[in-house]
Structures are given as structure tokens and as C-alpha cells.
Amino acid sequence: MSARRQKSLVLILARELASDLATPIYIADADENLVYFNEPAEKIAGRSFAETGEIPISEWVQMLTPVGADGKELSRDEMPGGIASRERRPAHASLGITGLDGRKREIATTAFPLLGPDGEFHGIMVIFWESG
Amino acid sequence: MGTGERKQKSLALIRAREVATNLAIPMVVLDSEGTIVFFNRSAEMLFGRPFEEAGELTSDEWETAFAPEEADGTPISMRDLPAGVALTQQRPHHRAIYYADAEGVRREVEVTAFPLMGREGELYGAVTIVWGR
Fold first, then answer.
1. Domain range A2-130, CATH class
2. Is the ipTM above a cut-off of 0.90?
3. What are phi and psi of B80, to 5 degrees?
4. Per-residue pLDDT tens digits for B65-83
5. How many beta carbons lie within 10 A of that of residue B100, not counting itself?
6. Residue-range domains of chain B with CATH
7. Rounded Cα distance, B27 and A18, in Å
8. How does pLDDT run across A68-84, given as a tens digit for each residue?
9. Residue in chain B nearest A93 by alpha carbon
10. Residues of B with CB below 8 A from A20's CB?
């Protein structure tokens, strides 16, 4: 029960921080479900969080068709968010996406694990910005 | 600065500090002047002591103490650091840097900083995340 409460607290705090910022941010929980993205992220993703709702992060990422510098499609595991989830460490990369509005964008993205002081994994927070 | 704006400014920094306090990855919170107003326990390795001892550090103080460098030893100025870019250009930035830790050991780290900027464009500060390569 206390672990669940702590998990909620970290995600709630991360969401509170993201909600008022102009930097695009999305948050996924420990089960790899997209639990929030802020308004600036909507502009890059091409769809609002209200429309998308809580969905598996792999589904959301697939919708954005991420590609590497060589133009090849990236798997979730190759992306910073996948690395942060799987390896529990921050990661950074530049990649291309196609927003749900059909627009191609070059973005830089940094993902870091939401690891509590006790080492418990609560999810990931991902910052991304247009770089091209 | 009006009362409402001051309150919002405090709120953004307070929220960033709350997140940093509850995370086990090195995180540093700066105000809009570049003063470090908080770093978490995981970031103690950067400063060689806990925030409770170090206290707030102005940009001049932490730039001198931290002495960030390029791979070839060229000093990196504050404005070229991710935190400097986040504060002066008000956009996130990422790069690798070198620095000497408290024991004088040269370390390479990756750093991402993003501005704490409200939707109206008001700048409250920046958050820096640091990790070893």
C-alpha cells in the first residue's frame, strides 16, 4: 500500500511539474503506459492527451513513426524512453518523427527513469524538443 | 514583478525541487539568474557535499567550483552549458562535458537541461539532469 502511494506521489509530482511548463514532456508509468503529456507536447505529437488517453507507450510511439539519422524506423527499445525504462538510466538521442497531424519533425529527446530514493522504479519522464 | 508572478515563480521552483528530492538521479534546480537553488542527494557527487552544507551557489560560484571543460580541456563558459542555454535561449539543450570531481578525478558526463518556462513565456529557472557515460 505504501509502495503504491509512493509510486503515485512520484508520478503526481512529475505531472505537476510538467503541466505548467512550455517544454514538451511526456510521462509513462512503470507498466509502460502513457499516463500524461503536456500541452506543448500535443503540438509535436499532433493530438491532445484528452484524445489519446492512457495507452501503452509502445502504441503511442508506433503512431509517431520514429526514425533514426539513417532514416530507418526505430524500435521502442532503441529510443531513449525504451532505454530509460529497460536499463533504468537516462538516455538522449536525435530522431525524426511524423506527428499525428502528418507533419515530419526532427526532434531531440532525453528520457530519464523516475527512480525513487529507495531505488523503486515508478516510470519515465521524457523531454523532447524540435531540433530541425 | 507582481505578487501573482512571484507566487508562480516560487511554485515552479518548488515543484522542480519536489521532483528532484524524490528521485535517485542527479538533478540540479537553478533560478532564472543561474543560481543553484537546490541539488538532490544523487547530485552530491558533482559538488562533493550535500546541498544542506553547500547552500545556494551563484553562477560564478558553481562555474568556478565545477570548472566544466571540453574533451580537449578548453573551459566551457556558463552560456554554453546546457543550463546556460536553457536560461539564455529558453530551450532545452544536451551535451557531454568533462569536469573534475571533489577528489580531482576527471569525469565525463552527459547533461540535459530544460527551462522552467511557463506557457506565457515567463522564465522561472531551469532543471539540469546529469549522468555518467
1. alpha beta
2. no
3. -95, -5
4. 888 999 999 999 999 999 9
5. 14
6. 3-132 (3.30.450.20)
7. 15
8. 989 999 999 999 999 99
9. B94
10. 8, 11-12, 15, 118-119
